[in-house]
Structures are given as C-alpha cells and as structure tokens.
Amino acid sequence: MTAARFRFDRFVLDPGNRRLALDGRPVELNARYLDALALLVREQGQLVSKDRFLDEVWRGVPVTDEALTQCIKTLRRQLGDDAGNPRFIETVPKHGYRFIAPVETADGAAAAGAEPGRASSAPWQQFLWLGFAGTLGGGIAGAIGGLFYGFAGASQPLAPGIGALSVLLVLFSVTALVALVGAAGVSFGIAGADYLSGRPGRWRVVGGVLGGLLIGAVVKLLGLDAFALLFGQSPGDITGAAEGAVLGAAVASGAWLADRARNASSLARVALAGVPGGVAGVLIPMLGGRMMAGSLDLLAQTFPGSRLRLDPIGRLFGEDGFGPVSHAVTGGLEGLLFTGGVVGAMLLARRRLTGER
After folding, report:
1. Are residues 71 and 137 in the same domain?
2. β-pairing, 89-92 with 25-26?
3. Do the domain assignments include residue 115?
4. pLDDT band at 118, cuts 50/70/90?
C-alpha cells in the first residue's frame, strides 16, 4: 500500500519516497529530520511529546534534548517558519511540539487531525483573497471617515441649490474611493510580497511600502491632472507617494503586531494593528505631508468659491479653521482606522482560508 502524501501551504511531503518539495522543488532534509516532520504532519493539530520523538524518530538511540531542539530548528528554517510567530510548528513548553498548519492528503482530503472543512488554499488564491479583503477593509474605513467629514461639511450654511445631503454624499464618496484605491495598493503589495517570497511576513514592509508608493503617486498624478484640466489649476501638494509609502509601512507593521498577538482576541489584535497607522497619521502632517482631511482642506483653500469647509472640525479643538492640531488629530484617526480596517479584513480572510487562529 502506497504511503499517503501530505500537502500543506506550498509544500508536499511524501514520506514513502522520502521527499519534501516546495513548489515542486526538493527541500533538503536528512532522514531523521524528515521522519520528525512526517510524525508532526501525521499528527496535525495534536501534541507530539518529546518521548514520542525519541521513540519513533530516534528509535531508542540515546540523544540529548539538544538534538531534538536542533531538529525542530532546522525544520523551521527549511519551512521558512518563525518560532516566535509560528505558521507550521508550535512549541508547547516542557511538553513537545504541534503542527498547526492545515494539512491535506495529496488527493485533497483533509488529513487526520485537521479541522473539518478547513483545507489549505493555493498560494495564488490566498494572494487574491488577502488582497481583495484588505482592499474592502480599507474601503470600509474610508467610508466611515467620509461620513464624518461629510457631516462636518454639511453642518454649515450652504449656497442656494446645494443641499446638505449632496455635500455628505460627495465627501463620503470621494473619501471612500481614495481609501479603497490606497488599500488596494497596500493590500496587494503585502499579499504579493508573501506570495513571491514564500516567506510570509519577511518582506511585508517592502511590499506595503512599494504598493502604497505606487498607488499614492498614480492617484496624485491623476488627481492633479484632472483638476488642472477641469478647473485650470491644481491644488498642489495633496496626498501622494510619500504618504502612501509611510502608510504602507504602517499597515505592514500593524499586520506584524497582529500576528505576534496571535493569542489575543480578534478585537485586541485589530486595535493593536491600528497603532502604527495612528502614529504614522500623526507624523505625516507634522512632517509637512497631508492625510485625507488635510487634502480636503487644501482643496477648499485652492478653490475659495467652493462650499467645502472643515472649519467645524477645527472648532472642536479650539482652532480658528482647520489648523495643525486638527491636521494631527484627524490624521491619527485616519491612520488608525485605515490600518485597523485593512489588517482586520486580511486577518479574517486568512482565518477563513487556512483555519489560522
């Protein structure tokens, strides 16, 4: 009878043919370490004690605990795993180890011990789902911010023929659209970095920065050209590449923090993920950049005949108009909400795809 082959993430383990492959390419492991991995995978989700390793892998050969530690360390290195934030092998202190990634047999059936209904998706599927999920999460965050700015803009006297509802809908739509596009760049940048590197988490900051940088530059360029074409002048230094790169780095950092807090509640992980975004949102206007509210205020100054005003927000902070405190506070809230929305949606998508906690 042919021994079962196991599939997890991008790996295929074939114990019968003594082979581990990543995307079809052999991964080097000595015989003892391959036996240890096979034991862990067969017992997916179950604790494998140190005694079982000694009995079934070393088969009674006297070895020290350091031999098992070195074995697990090597397996993690070959799998691209991280002991502090494991995707494959989890340490149970003083007891043993547990294989935590979803496992299928080669015919697609869930392996023994795997959670029913949870099979590992192909890497390209994870890339698409995580990218789209982050885009949606960022768009929802932008919609929330758009409602706030819309109500602020509609709370002051308007010109005849311009209804409060119109102002609300315009600001809501513009803010949500900008957030949706920005989230798409950052989310697909992060998901793409994981997909291309095969080492989830290692290149996320690079992916987030590049995605935010590219989308920010394109949006700013098209926005300025559109204003120049339609109105004969452009508002100048609206949100662009630099702000996109900083926010991309903040989202990737937030995703890293959420991964580190794997044992916390979902709400706590999302709140923690939002912290780098909030910090970035405060720093951007302090360093001369602009978040969404700052860009809207700049538009109001560039086109004084418009009815766009964010003065009511400034008055909340005792300012005459939309001043530096308003810029910093709204920027921080935008960054917090945007980062939390993107990371929270990606966490939810990853959980549904892989069964990850």
Report:
1. no
2. unpaired
3. no
4. very low
